[in-house]
Amino acid sequence: MFRNYLKIAWRNLGRQKVFAAVNITGMTVAFCAALLLGIAAYHEWTYDNFHKDSDRLFQIYTEERLPGGKSLPSSSEAVPLAPVLQKECAAVQQVARYVGEVENVQYGERSMDLMVRFVDPSFLSMFNFPVLKGDVNALHRADQVLLTEKAAHNLFNNGNAIGKIVQIKMNNQLKPFTVGGIMADVPGSSSFDFEILTSFGNVIQMLDEPDSWSNESYRTLIQLQKNASAAAFEKQSRAVMHKYYTGRISDMVRDGATPDKGGEVLSLHTIPLRDIHFNEVSKIGSAISRFYPWMLVIMAFMIVSIAAINFINLSMGRSFTRAGEIGLRKALGALRGQLIFQFWSEAFIICSIALLMSLTLAGLLLPGFNAMFKYHFTLNILKDVRVITGIISIFLFVTLMAGGYPAWLISGFNIVEVLKGKLRLGKSSFMRNTLIIVQFIVAVLLISCTVVLWQQLQYLRSRPLGYNQHQVISLPVNGNVNAAQALGSLRSRLDGNPHVLAVSASGMNLGKGLDGSEANWHIGFDYKGHGVKMAMQEVSYDYAKTLDLQLVSGRDFTKGYVDSQVVIINEKMALQLGEKDPIGKELQWDEKPPVKIVGVVKDFNFKSLHQDIEPLTMKLVPSLQVSYIFIKVQPADLPGSMAIIEKVWKEINPRGTFQGSFLDDNTNRMYKAESRLAGIIISSAVLAIIISCMGLFAIAVLVIAQRNKEIGVRKILGASAASIVTLISVDFLKLVAVAILIATPVAWYLMNTWLQEFAYRIHIQWWTFVLSGMAAVIIAFFTISFQSIRAALMNPVKSLKTE
After folding, report:
1. What is the span of the domain harbouring residue 217?
2. Which domain of life is it from (predicted)?
3. Is there a single domain that holds both residue 748 and residue 608?
4. Considering its fold, how many domains does the chain have in total?
5. Cα–Cα distance between 28 and 676 in angstroms, integer?
6. N or C: which end of the chain has fewer CB within 10 A?
7. Mean pLDDT, residues 290-294 taken together
8. With pLDDT > 70 as the criterion, what percentage of the chain qualifies?
9. For 581-609, what is each residue's pLDDT tens digit?
10. Pick from 176, 155, 72: which is nearest to 112 by CA?
């Protein structure tokens, strides 16, 4: 019996090829888009879930209360904090510190830049990063390292790496290490990224004051006891903060810090391991907004919903052409349940074909999807039982929704009215119109969000940052090269080159370079009886000249002066000091000799535009310690200038990697998440509009077919083609207008909320929504007009005769 239902359903679809094609195409595209977006969301939600004791693993951060009720969270902790927590907090079972960056690694003639992380030995017992070969206790020795399989393959060409000596550039010097073991590669869904692990003891050896509580530069991770809670740990940590930060807490109270609900002005808090990926405070890996995966799911739901709405509308529309079949079946004794099953089986066939085609299409589009949104997915993810279960559940739900309602509606026709030819679908017309409105609400919403996103991204990319982004090349100092010698050699070789205007260097990059770096250094101290917190940048001579920073007062660093103990500050720093004329004033921190302010520069955005400009102090750094060289070039031939810099750098540093990039590219890389979001919304908007228009076109065909007699009568009575086109189009455009009125306030609310994440943002203009609405109206009109014009130009005698 079931086989007969499917056979009849297949024959019916064969007789309705146009509508079957519209439904199959729409559902295929929708399923494919939903599958890709769903895989992306699943990937984001499963970050760090492969660790065995993930519910007991946390990262800690410090919350510093400020005057006025605000707070300043920071995940940078002092070196001695970890052992103190291990000793003095009963809730803590294990603690591990985590820090590192890309370093040059060498073996024989091979040299490459790899991600080196310094961790405590407890790191491997807390987290599930298995050692496949070698000594699992290698991290207990400061002279040993663990390599991932991929790093070992690249460095040793599949040779045996255990026991081999590699050299890692640390603190501008090559240091030998023995390969103690090989680890499994880090999963793509891990917040922790590394290619080499070595002991945190190497960091301690490089520090002048390893016991200092003011040097806060390290991430601290804890594993709680089995019966302990994060709240219990935070409560126990209060005693630690009062014991070791007494002076700092006193200064904060003196400066008017507003206590939190527990009466604390300086406290420790926790970030659960599974929340690290969604927490910007963490600074481990690349954090994204928690809404991002939900947004992917919402987009997938919208696209599938639009395709399902098309299916429902077309099924209800086709009921007019199938009235005779329905009446005959009922007259011959068919039960309503049998009719429902018959019509639902047609929906099942269409959805099944669409699902199979969508899997094939997803496989073909996956490389492009990965390239567009910077993912690395494969269809192997479909082997996951949870993913398969989700796909089947969604498929059955969509099939029941898309096929169930039309089947229930059609099967309920009155047999007498059907056989008399008095079929009426008043309620279904209301439902059809409602569903069309929903479709265009989604379309208008996506168009409006796309426009606002594009405007904000353009604003971020074009807003003046206070320094020269377009002519300055940022060049990481990597490879086996002495930084001081490299800087001096580069300056001498480029001196007199007409393409080069200035050369400087710094310990930190601006924006996010090709080496993936994005770091800041903060210092807090007392100045004339009140606390001061500032960002610190160590720079070389000609830094202001190279970046075109505007000097407000005082002077720049000058080689004719002894400038080892002088600094230049920005306007925000001068304001924080409370000095109208800060030139000549002295600052002191970390019990080091005081430094004198010799210059003030105009504020510039040295961080992302998500954040406001901070107080900044710039100090001369010894050339030996520079990490980035900045070269200002002529604007006339930027690609040619880059090629010259690359050639010179490879001569100076033949074993290093050239990773030069213009600062405007570095800036754009800071907004990768926003660019990805814009790409997904734009793609979703295009798909939503295409699928909506397919459905609207098919509905227009059905509606116009039902009004052929009316159109013929109007033409005979003298109606023009234009008036008939207007008559038909207005009915649909009214629905689009209703959709615009509903979607506009929703779009404004959503995008205004999103814009609050930026310290610098656009103001949403009213014309944005006018343009979005006009776009929806124009798209809908052109979709309908082809069929409307065709009906208006039809011979009225022919239409009346067929009626």
Report:
1. 54-278
2. Bacteria
3. no
4. 3
5. 24
6. N
7. 82
8. 87
9. 899 998 888 767 888 999 999 999 988 88
10. 155
